Amino acid sequence: MRYFSTRNKNKLVSFKEAVMEGLASDGGLFMPEEIPSFPNSFIENLESISFEEIGFETAKKFAGDEISDEKLREIISKSLFFPAPVVELDESIGILELFHGPTLAFKDFGAQFMARTMGYFVQGSEKELNILVATSGDTGSAVANGFYEVEGINVFILYPSGKVSAIQEKQLTTLGKNITALEIQGTFDDCQDLVKKAFVDRALNEKLNLSSANSINIARLIPQSFYYINAFKQVAKKNKKVVVSVPSGNLGNITAGLMAHKMGLPVDMFIAATNSNDVFTNYLSSGKYEPRKSVQTYSNAMDVGNPSNFERIQNIYGVVEAMNKEIFSVSHNDESTVDGIKEVFEKYNYIIDPHGSVGYLALKKFLSNHNKKEYFGVNVETAHPAKFKDIIESTLGKEIEIPERLKECINREKKSIVLDNKFDTLKNFLLSL
Ligand SMILES: *Cc1c(COP(=O)(O)O)cnc(C)c1O
After folding, report:
1. pTM for this one?
2. Can you give the pLDDT at residue 235?
3. What's the rounded Cα separation, in Å, for the pair 30 and 17?
4. In the chain, at which end, N or C, are there fewer CB atoms within 10 A of the end residue's CB?
5. Whose CA is nearest to atom 2 of ligand 1?
6. Closest CA to 180 of 159, 197, 156
7. Of 334, 321, 327, 325, whose CA–CA distance to 307 is shortest?
8. How many angstroms does the Cα of residue 135 sit away from the middle of ligand 1?
């Protein structure tokens, strides 16, 4: 399989190049030359196919012959060490729980697979690979966990000092080994600027093999399509039309679902559930794409004003009319988000996080517009509610339990290297390695 840039269809690269470069040199995003498709028998027999096997069969189509079957199976089996169950709330709604990974959010699926795939491609090269990531919290911890102990790769996580939550900081700073936390005295934007400058600095690039583990990497989308297929498998026997609601920010997660759909997954409709950052929702109704500055909400991982994967969705569908046939979108504000958390708890005794609440509300809206009996709605729960303890506890008036794997890192010792926000400081630090 070859990959093109969304900004230049004529420049084709291999899977390895697409993964190792992350972003195309023209600023575009890599897409497969042709979205592969499953044979009918694969979908018909889904019930007897394991999550790992789904992962292998899907990834194989994207990796082509650049990774041997044996190696690819190993990558998949080491990446999919946690489940993605659909928990049924009632006869028409289920929750796809994507928070069973090490950092309690769906980004673990992408990070685990990307890390092992990059680890494979870096083997045999003379220089170690150094990954720089700027984070405002969640992406950094998923990436750090994914790359932990991957041979031949060092990860430097730049985070703004005092501006990530206590739990997030522990997730970033307690791993050690090949993961180094750089605590920057500045803002998230400073961290992002420093990383961008490092990638174009000649002296640094001559000495070090630098790369990013950005959310736009195609290697993060591929494993995200596995759990949509695996979720469909879990609800297929209901013989209803399946609709999937995805709490969306940069639109990476829903893009993975749309790709699975193009591969042949018979989902009837995808829902892009947005918070007050509703640029994509507005685009679907007006046909005008008008990015703007993001606003802060309770579902903060969706606070995106110019979703990066919009380019990929546009590439898949071409025109807005085509998108509207397969994607429904609606936005909900913080007030509704809180009501959603309450409703799901009172009605189903299930604690949903603020992102999942936005998804639930959008799904409910879709079902109320359609004949509910004909549909089964899967709402994607992107993070564990314990990550948003304060909002949940003040909304429900009860304490929520923190999962063991999170407790464990809270008790470990923080290790970070404090740097100011000047580029020369970072540069000298990296050159001294
Ligand atoms: C990243 C994230 C999202 C948004 O996903 P996109 O792929 O950016 O649309 C939603 N919920 C949570 C908890 C996240 O971490």
Report:
1. 0.94
2. 97
3. 10
4. C
5. 301
6. 156
7. 327
8. 14
